[in-house]
Design goal:
The protein is α/β, with parallel strands linked by helices and 330 residues long. Helices cover 43% and strands 19% of the residues.
Amino acid sequence: MNVIILAIESSCDDTSAAVIRNGEVLSNCIANQEVHRQYGGVVPEVASRAHQANIIPVVNLALQKAGIGKEAVQAVAFTRGPGLLGSLLVGTSFAKAFALSRGLPLIEVNHMQAHVLAHFAEDPKPAFPFLCLTVSGGHTQIVLVRDFLDMEVIGETLDDAAGEAFDKSGKLLGLGYPAGPLIDKFARQGEARFPFPEPSVPGLNFSFSGLKTSILYFLKKEMGNDPDFIEKNLNDICASIQTSIITILMKKLRKAARQTGIGEIAIAGGVSANSGLREALEATGKKEGWKTYIPAFQYCTDNAGMIGVAGYYKYLKSDFCGQDAIPFAR
């Protein structure tokens, strides 16, 4: 059986299209929206308008790079949510129109489940069951993955996501958007010498709102004594923030692994591109005897390749949706 799927991802500010054949990613194209940098964050209305401009060129490019004509596509997979409603509506509408015009089945994909299944785009692939720490700007979860379509969230943030903690901390430091990669860059040149309190959260859940508040008060206090404190200590501040966030993540992941007895451990989501988190997972994995899995950088951030991979496994189960599918924010 030769299954060719066109996949669409438009959950936030990246417009992406990919072509997948039998679970293999043939092309994975992304159009970024640089316009949001001037606002210090994603503006939903601006994002949805940019998606409208980008969607057709990106789809054409994905088909061209894959060497696949639109007549060869057998199904259309799309991100139904979670995400920004305006952005999702553009991708959903295009996917529905493409499928309707060619009489193709539609496959709705949960964005967070797709992050987990990004691990099946390339080797090495985790064995079931495995735990996946999915960390992004909007979500922080520990997911117990029993099978391709059988997942259970066993821990999640009670307030802010880890990615948001990176970005909001970066804003306090006067860094551009997105701040996460910049904090990672400066942290590699610094020393984590400023301790921040860890939140006390029961079970496998997370909390990052208190950490953001403690960073705010710390910076206000230090800048009251020295207005140039941030400039003089930027690398060390970034290293301290990054270390604090990663320590919180790894402690909960280690606890989940010990509670479940599972030694197949993966990370996913935009924050999984962070060099400190990737190194921490490998180091903890060696100490705990885990088999660890880290996605390639192209599958960390929002991309249609992971949507197509998830769509492929739903296709095998004939798990299709109707033209009445509407996007959801959370």
